Amino acid sequence: MPFSISCDQSTDEAFAQSDLPWGTVLGQSPTSANFELTLQHQLSRLSIVVTADTGFEEGELKASDVSVTIGGTKTAATFDLQTAAITLVSGSTADVKCHSDGDLTYTAILLPQQVPFSTLIQVDWQGNKYTLQNTLTLEARRQYTLKVKLKKTKSGFDIGIEGWDIIPEDFGGVVG
Fold this sequence. Notes:
The protein is mainly β and 176 residues long. The chain has one helix at 12-17; strands spanning 2-4, 21-22, 40-41, 44-52, 66-74, 76-79, 86-88, 93-97, 99-102, 105-110, 113-125, 128-138, 143-150. It has a 4-stranded mixed β-sheet with strand order 9-10-4-13, with no helix packed on it. A 4-stranded antiparallel β-sheet has the order 8-5-11-12, with no helix packed on it. The chain starts with a strand and ends in a 26-residue tail after the last strand.
């Protein structure tokens, strides 16, 4: 069965439609009686927690001003209904816009895969783009959390002055 996740999961509907729960009951004869079926998520869930770091003032970073995108992931696969095996479709990489869960936490449901080294996370804050390059292995039925600290710079760079190197030797002497 062909299956794909939404590349824009920013709405509740698109986020929910990207999920793929699956379950089976073995040895159950047809019956009109109730029986229990437990479903398991077959995909991966990635949550990104954004926090303010150097350069931000208290309360300046607000969830309403932030969007988060996950880059370079496969978005299409086939799903075997009997075995729950997921087979990625080659060449179907795209960026996935995350769902805002509030409190500067952003989540996406992704296909299990090895995401190659690339711009893995892009945070857009008021038109300023912050990127985190990395690789990531996503396994089925697992949730991952990445914590991203935004550092606000002025004119593209920060200048800091480190403290002095203190030499423990005393260079004084007797003054006569």
